[in-house]
């Protein structure tokens, strides 16, 4: 598996609250790990929330007694949520903090991932598809038929999320399982990318890049050239890289 990840502060923010983590080495029962988190809260709270949540995810993964990927993901998300709430109660500066979370692993040719919030996981091959579902007010409006998907892209309430880590005692993560095929690329990102670059433009950028490193750099550059209104967090993976030389 080929992996690359980076964050960028963007053009408007004073602090970077996005945090990403990738490894192709085993952590507990998972052979690899990909994580994206977009923190929210006061001046340092969002920064702390995203890093702390990823830290707990890694620690819990190393010590989990479970062996089914879906159960493991559900369990570590729940524990990370609880620990983040506890941490927020230890320091007044951390009160009200939270974070989005997308955590993924590829086992054999199967992708497993969990999602809380509006950070995203896309699959790219001959087209781009968003596999995750946004936990946002606007997405709920789309599902209920209140607005059309096209209207959601530029809705004024686009950034209001309905689920996040560290907000409620119980958090419900969406758990996904997807069978991969040759040439598939995984793109995970915070809304600092997805709000600034259209899906079709992401697809074109990735397809024009020589490799995933260049693709990530070009995606970040495009988000910034479009205004860079938020921090940008991006993870890309070529999970079956050993089976295909170029997408």
Compact summary:
With 247 residues, the protein is of the alpha+beta class. Helix content is 32%, strand content 26%.
What features would you describe in this structure?
The chain has a single domain, classed as Phosphatase 2c, domain 1. It is 32% helix and 26% strand. It contains seven helices and eleven strands. Strands 2, 3, 4, 5, 6 and 9 form a six-stranded antiparallel β-sheet that branches. The relative contact order is 0.20.
Task: Show the helix and strand layout.
Blueprint: E1 2-8, E2 18-23, E3 33-40, H1 45-63, H2 69-88, E4 98-99, E5 101-107, E6 110-116, E7 120-124, E8 128-130, H3 137-143, H4 149-152, E9 174-179, E10 185-189, H5 191-194, H6 199-208, H7 212-225, E11 232-238
Antiparallel strand pairs: 1-11, 2-3, 3-4, 3-5, 5-6, 6-9, 7-8, 7-10, 10-11
Helix pairs in contact: 1-2, 6-7
Give me the secondary-structure category: alpha+beta
CATH class: Alpha Beta
Order of helices and strands: EEEHHEEEEEHHEEHHHE
CATH architecture: 4-Layer Sandwich
Cα-atom radius of gyration: 17 Å
Helix share, percent? 25-40%
**DSSP strand (E) fraction?**
25-35%
* Terminus-to-terminus distance: 13 Å
Shape: globular
Q: Total number of helical segments?
A: 7
On the 0 to 100 scale, the average pLDDT is 93
Q: If you consult CATH, what is the topology?
A: Phosphatase 2c, domain 1
Whole-number count of domains: 1
The beta-strand count equals 11
Largest sheet: 6 strands, antiparallel
CATH superfamily: PPM-type phosphatase domain
Unreliable stretches covering 5 or more consecutive residues: none
């Amino acid at each position: 598996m080929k992996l690359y990840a980076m964050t960028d502060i963007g053009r408007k923010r004073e602090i970077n609250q996005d945090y990403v983590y990738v490894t192709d080495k085993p952590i507990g029962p998972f052979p690899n790990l990909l994580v994206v988190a977009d923190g929210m809260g006061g001046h340092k709270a969002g920064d702390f929330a995203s890093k702390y949540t990823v830290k707990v995810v890694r620690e819990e993964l190393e010590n989990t007694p479970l062996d089914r990927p879906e159960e493991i993901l559900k369990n570590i998300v729940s524990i990370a949520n609880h620990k983040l709430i506890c941490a927020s109660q230890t320091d007044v500066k951390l009160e009200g903090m939270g974070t989005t979370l997308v955590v993924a692993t590829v086992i054999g040719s199967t992708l497993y991932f969990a999602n809380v919030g509006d950070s995203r996981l896309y699959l790219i091959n001959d087209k781009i598809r968003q596999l995750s579902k946004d936990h946002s007010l606007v997405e709920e409006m789309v599902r209920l038929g209140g607005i059309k998907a096209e209207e959601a892209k530029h809705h004024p309430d686009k950034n209001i999320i309905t689920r996040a880590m560290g907000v409620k005692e119980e958090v419900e993560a969406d758990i996904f399982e997807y069978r991969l095929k040759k040439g598939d690329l995984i793109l995970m990102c915070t809304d600092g990318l997805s709000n600034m670059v259209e899906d079709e433009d992401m697809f074109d950028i990735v397809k024009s890049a020589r490799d995933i490193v260049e693709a990530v750099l070009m995606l970040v550059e495009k988000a910034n050239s479009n205004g860079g209104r938020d921090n940008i967090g991006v993870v890309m993976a070529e999970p079956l890289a050993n089976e295909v030389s170029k997408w």
